Amino acid sequence: MNTKLLIIVAAAILAACSSSNRIITITINEVTAKLFRDKNASKLAMQLANINYPATVTHEGDTVNIHVGQAPVRDVRRSICRQFGWPSFAGKMARIDDTLRNLRNVGITKLKLIGDTETLEVELEKDGRCRKTS
Predict the structure, then answer these.
(1) Contact assessment for residue 41 and residue 64, using Cβ atoms and an 8 Å cutoff
(2) What digits encode the pLDDT tens for the residues 124-133?
(3) Secondary structure (H, E, C), the chain
(4) Is 26 exposed, middle or buried (0-12, 13-18, 19+ CB in 10 A)?
(5) How many beta carbons lie within 10 A of that of residue 115, not counting itself?
(6) Which is nearest to 98 in space by CA: 34, 42, 26, 43?
(7) Rg of the chain on CA atoms, in Å
(8) Which residues contact 73 (CB under 8 A, 6 or more apart)?
(9) Cα separation of 51 and 88, whole Å?
(10) How far is CA 43 from CA 14, 16, 26, 116, in A?
């Protein structure tokens, strides 16, 4: 079953069973969190390819590494950090900001853009926005 669906179902059950003034806390184990990060890392790679920035996306600890090859990393950063979607070849919007928010929610706090000639670090904020850190 889809991890995201399990989380939503668990939240819905807890919400239905609790009073309106209680806080719902969901704990994700490390295996589930890793699968969630892997899924969102591959989704980010697909979204970048849809906007003409083919990339290899991996994660290590609290950082997602984005290998963009010859693409200018500053252009990739601008594209990632804009808060809107791009149409993909399948007619769907590539919602990079949603993917970044999902990564932030499971503990990813930095993106590292690695090009052939330069590297740039970007910090993810809690609302899914990002800012340049180096």
Answers:
(1) yes
(2) 887 767 777 7
(3) CCHHHHHHHHHHHHHHHCCCCCCCCCCCCHHHHHHHHHHHHHHHHHHHHHCCCCCEEEEECCEEEEEEECCCHHHHHHHHHCCCCEECCCCCEECHHHHHHHHHHCCCCEEEEEECCCEEEEEECCCCCEEECC
(4) exposed
(5) 19
(6) 43
(7) 16
(8) 113, 114, 115, 118, 119, 120
(9) 7
(10) 28, 31, 23, 23
CA pair distance 113, 64, nearest whole angstrom = 9
The rounded distance, in Å, linking the Cα atoms of 75 and 80 is 9
Summarised one tens digit per residue, pLDDT across range 70-124 is: 888 888 888 887 755 555 555 555 678 788 888 888 888 999 999 999 999 999 8
Tokens 């990393």 belong to residue: 73
Tracing tokens 């149409």 back to the chain, one arrives at: 87
Write down the domain spans for the chain. 29-132
